[in-house]
Amino acid sequence: MAVKKEKTIEETFAEMEELIKKLESGESSLEESFQYYETGMKLVKSCNDKIDKVEKKIIVLEDDGEKSEL
């Protein structure tokens, strides 16, 4: 059974950049533009979720050397 690999934040950003180029080109139909927009919004949410997970994992070393979650 194949495991679906989750895209990295960098891969997701690259995909968003491609969508932006397509939208800015002016060559897409209105329907295609809406689809690109919808896909882009899903990608933004995915990035936000990934960034939130990373922020929750950040550990700060306090002055006394103990670790604490941010």
Automatic annotation (TrEMBL):
Alphabetized GO MF terms: exodeoxyribonuclease VII activity
GO cellular component: cytosol; exodeoxyribonuclease VII complex
Protein's recorded name: Exodeoxyribonuclease 7 small subunit
GO biological process, any: DNA catabolic process
Superkingdom assignment: Bacteria
NCBIfam families documented for this protein: xseB (TIGR01280)
Family membership: Belongs to the XseB family.
Keywords associated with the record: Coiled coil, Cytoplasm, Exonuclease, Hydrolase, Nuclease
Subcellular location: Cytoplasm
Predominant location: cytoplasm
Coiled coil: 2-64
Pfam families linked to this entry: Exonuc_VII_S (PF02609)
EC number, UniProt record: 3.1.11.6
Function: Bidirectionally degrades single-stranded DNA into large acid-insoluble oligonucleotides, which are then degraded further into small acid-soluble oligonucleotides.
Reaction(s) the record says it catalyses: Exonucleolytic cleavage in either 5'- to 3'- or 3'- to 5'-direction to yield nucleoside 5'-phosphates
Subunit-structure text: Heterooligomer composed of large and small subunits.
